[in-house]
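Friendly challenge for the regulars: who can give me the structure tokens for this chain first? No prize, just bragging rights.
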Amino acid sequence: MKIITCIVIVIISFIFPVLCAGEVMDRIIAIVNDDIITLKEAEKHVQVEKEGRFVSINEYMTNLRLKEKIDLLIDDVLIRQEAKRMKIDVEEKEVEGIIENIKKQYLIDDTELMQKLKDDNISLDDFKVGLKNNVLRSRLLNRVISPEVNVTEQDLRQYYDKHKEEFIDEEYRLQQIFVSGQREDAQKRIIEAYKLLQEGKPFEVVVKDFSDDKKSSATDGDIGFVKKIDLIPQLRDVAGMLSPGVYSSIITTPYGFHILKLVEKKRGETMTFEMAKEAINEKIIQEESEKRYNDYIVKLRKGSYIEVKI
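First reply, four minutes later:
Bragging rights claimed.
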């Protein structure tokens, strides 16, 4: 499976749970300028962040008070209002492209993605809305905050000198045994597969007997060359430590369990400072912009009419 260069967007998706037993009667729970937030909207709210894992709302929201949950919704509404005012939009084809990149980063197909969304009670439409809101948020920040960030040549050079490993062009050809986390016996199954490898059974045989990735299992688990930057952190960190012919221990990701085997590594030259400057500049701006995000939200709140009705 050929994985293309893409924006690393590994996701956390939340969906607000039903707040009491039984069917919930819809009602207004907050007013934000000219918009309202209803209880049902809160229940299906999806927020997407640039993080390294994908968790259900029940896991994320366990220790949050209802007021804090509503605050998240209010922030999203304020961002959407500002994006609309500034005529910032995201096209449907852009959202579809992000979904394709997500599948490639997690080494999953349409069926596995849809199953994960179903398990978290998230519709595909709500998931797309969450992705769109995340892009709107990024573009708004770039418009109103990033231009104020002053990055000097010295800043760029210091970052480059401290993070040269980030600018090595490296690719891995991998084989994979993947056991879906949707299986009730997933952990038992991956442990059994790993035990067979330790006993000397060929990786290619174990793949065919145990892997849920049917596409790659047809080619002995070979997923082709994968760029280092395209792998999610859990897989990238392990792949970088393997030597050709060596398989990993069991790796847990939000979608299940993996065992990777490195077939071949292509290590290119380190990018020169001049080649890396633009990417470094964007990264520093992004990091600084995120730090200023909370201040910007506070400013929006001060200039808005907000009424919480619970």
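The CA atoms of residues 178 and 258 lie 5 Å apart. Strands lie at 11-13, 28-32, 35-38, 48-50, 168-180, 222-227, 251-253, 256-270, 306-308. Your move, everyone else.
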